[in-house]
Write a structure and sequence with these properties.
588 residues; 26 helices; 1% strand
Amino acid sequence: GSLAPDRFTIDLILLPLIQRTEEKEKKDNSGKQQCWQQPELESVLDTFVAHHSAAIVRDAFSAFMNTLVQNGKLTYARRLFDLYIVPCLRGGGGGSGDDEEEDELLDRLLESRQRPDTRHFNILIDGYRREAMNAAIAAASSAVAITNNVDEDTQQSTAPINKSSSSSSSSLAASDQQDNTSNTKTNLILQAKDFTRQEQAARAEGQKLFRRMNLAGISPDPYTLTSMMGLCDSTEEVVQLLVNPLYERWISAAVVRSAMTACGQLGNPGLACVLFDSYYSQPRINQPNSPRLWNVLLNAFSDSAEQDNPLIQIDTPAAKLFLERSNSRNNNNEIKNTIEADSISELVQGKTCTDAVREVLHLMNDPDLRPWGPPPDAQTYCVAAAALQYAPETGPDLAMELFRNATSKGVSADGRFVNAIFRCFGDDINQALIAWKSDIRRACIMHETSSPSSPNRSTNKNLIAAYNGLLHVCGRAQRPDVGVRLVYAMNREGIEPNEVSLNNYRAGKRLGTRLMGIKTATLSSSQQQQQQQQQRPQRTFGGGQFPKLTLPKLNMVQQYENILYVECTKYNQYNKRMSKDQRVRIIV
């Protein structure tokens, strides 16, 4: 006789069975809507469910769902949940029906023999959170590309027109290039809308699943609330999760940190300050000698500064709602429900997020100002540097002040810290190179050689991260010629540049373009003309004055970026994204 597969075997064959069915659907149903049914897999699971107890089935399916979610198969994980953990009609399609289908699903959930537990909901809710986050990042990247009116992949694979060709062929090539640019912009707009729809759908499904969880009487845990913070559409929803009496015993340090992070991502750093002041005195939320909660606050400032560096307001409706609800249910005075005069909220009120970062960092460095505050650690300086790259006064003075302050406190010049420091140079690549040669490189190499070697540790990883930071500055300055020189310098040191290096240049270029657009929009036309007429003064560094590097000619920027692209990527004929790379590589 044949042996029925156990739960470990099924967990191993889940992905191969799904992939085989998907490949078959592509051949048989080309151009049709994808069907999420898996007859072969469901037959195996039917046999497994019929021969095992409900407890074993629950444990096994939590592992199955986790495997699918971790490998990007969230829709299939939801289907298994609906079919087996919450028995419903086989015709149901992944929990996307109308209200009647939702009521039917809820009734079956309450009557189910294999009643789901918190784990199953946690896996799916966190999966929806990840899907929403990835879709939001993709939508933001598409929006930046639309603003620039340039698709970077197409830009790298576009060759310059041969000037020796005839005028008719040149005009035809220019016309084709213009059509390609228009098509690219149209595709980017469609992609951005599609990613936005995916984000909204993922948030809606996650919130709907959480409501079903509450209606079924299944108690959430701190992991559930932490995941739900990432699915909130507003800071009012964040407050509702924090002040709900049903969840009070599940409010842990991780939940508070995720709430503060959500406030920064939603553009309300003032509420993050109020939460910090309210929960700071609780030993179960904050360890007095640990800077972790402070780092989360700085990260919230950084997320808000990345958007538009707003002024911090602590009297927002969400903050008032939190204080009112805390006051109504706070009998033991565990949570501070008023804003005190010496609080962080009062310190940063009315300041920009980048100014607030500098205030908090100064507070942590001076024990006389706040004796109960912990000293900053390496993560503190990394987060602060990441936020200060959006400051209006960003430049070499700010960057070197932060670098020297950190190293004097014993912070090692590892790769992530040096990378963040270089981003604070803004678009001043000249001073960044001088600082690299005079101070930063020496400290970075000293840390590299003093770190214990390990067979699992990549060689020169700190130097790679440092060079990537320099390439980010090249992108902000739109200096691909300097980027090419840096790539050649990496090769001479035995460091191989890769796509991460190229992406750092591209990220810097996107950020520089966006910040330049914001700055231009805030200046009047007369101010813009005056700014263009004034010559940019040379900065002094280390007591001496250094000339600016020679800018490349405008028509050579594209060629330098093509060279940078070729040097940072390895050609793979099986990669569809590189289908046009042969043309670029031959020209370069």
